[in-house]
Amino acid sequence: MSSSSSSTLPNATIFCIIALLGQLVLVASTDPLPLAQQLRIWKCRQRCYHQTDVSPSLCHARPDCYMCHDYCRVLVVAEWSLARSMCADRIFCSRGCRTACQFHRLHTATAAPFANALHKA
Predict the structure, then answer these.
(1) Most buried among 13, 91, 92, 118, using CB within 10 Å?
(2) Can you give the residue ranges of every domain in the chain?
(3) CA–CA separation, 118 and 104 (whole Å)
(4) What is the chain's alpha carbon radius of gyration, rounded to the nearest angstrom?
(5) What is the pLDDT of residues 60-71, one digit of tens each?
(6) How far apart are CA 22 and CA 71, in angstroms?
């Protein structure tokens, strides 16, 4: 891999990550989430749109926005150890992922281990 492409992921890799996250979201979305968690996801996604300067209707077409959008839900429903690993992964956690991780680090006061793990990421 050349030095100019080392900081960006190939489109196929990004697609695979998004597809895997989509599967996790589908499995986790069988039960409706409590209103507080739904609100946290909505607020996180608003930050995604703002940070990437993309409208919600176009978010799916922009990898950083789409990954942020997906991570907003995944980080709410995932076990804290999985969330920590996802946010700490410097290769696969893109700018969109880091935006969602930062939001959840700042807004997760009730799950101390999860918040601490995200703070270290």
Answers:
(1) 118
(2) 11-120
(3) 8
(4) 14
(5) 999 999 999 999
(6) 10
